Every structure is written in C-alpha cells, then in structure tokens.
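In this supplementary section we document a worked example of the pipeline. Step one takes a protein sequence of length 133 as its only input; no multiple sequence alignment statistics are reported here. Step two produces a three-dimensional model, which step three serialises into structure tokens for compact storage. The input and output of this example are shown verbatim.
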Amino acid sequence: MPFFDRVAYIPGDPADADRVSTGAPGVLRIEPDQVDAAIGIFEDALEKLRLKVEQARNQVLANPMAEDGVSQPAAAAFNRASFDGPGAATAAWSGAVDELESIIRQLRASKEAIVQADEILSNSFSSAASAMG
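The serialised model returned by step three reads:
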C-alpha cells in the first residue's frame, strides 16, 4: 500500500492537468498500516525544525555595527521585526512547530482509534465464534 494518497492540487503538475484549484488546502490520506511511519517522519521533521529554529535564533540576532545613532536603532528594529510580535519571523517558526506537533497528536489519536477498532472487531469475531461453537 502507498504511504499516502495525494489528493492535493499541485499547480503545474502534469498529473493534475485536468484539475481545477479550489484554493482549499490539500488532504493527506495515510493508510492505517503506515501511521507509525508517518508519525516517525513528522517527528523527524519536527526535531530538524526545532534545531534550525534554535540555530536561527542564535545566529539572526543583529548587533549594532557601530555605536552611532544609526547602527543601534537599525539593529534594534531588525531584532524587533525578527523576534517580537505576531508578525515576527519567530512567530512563523513557532507556528510551524505548533502545526507539526498538532499533526503528530492527530496521527497518534488516529493510531489509537485504529487499535481500538481492531480490538472491538477481534472481540466481535471471537464472541461470534464462541456462540457458534
């Protein structure tokens, strides 16, 4: 079985030549037997993103090039734009981290639901077999 079934529209992809974009985000469908692999992939991506965010936070901080009336306010403005407020770069990074964490939680919940459904189905068959036998 494939890891996922791509149902998202990708502009310019020849496979999607006859599709029309609705502007809606795509949907990623993961086969039940591939949920663990998907969790691993998203956890790896989350770990890499967290590392890159930490590196960026340490490397992006601007220091004034001189102690003059231009360099200091410019560095301060750059740092505010990068690190403070909802429009800051760090807000986007945090949003991406939050989104990956949400996907992982959803996948884990899906895995648990699959396990529970399998147990219910197995118990139903066992009960039916006992009643017949």
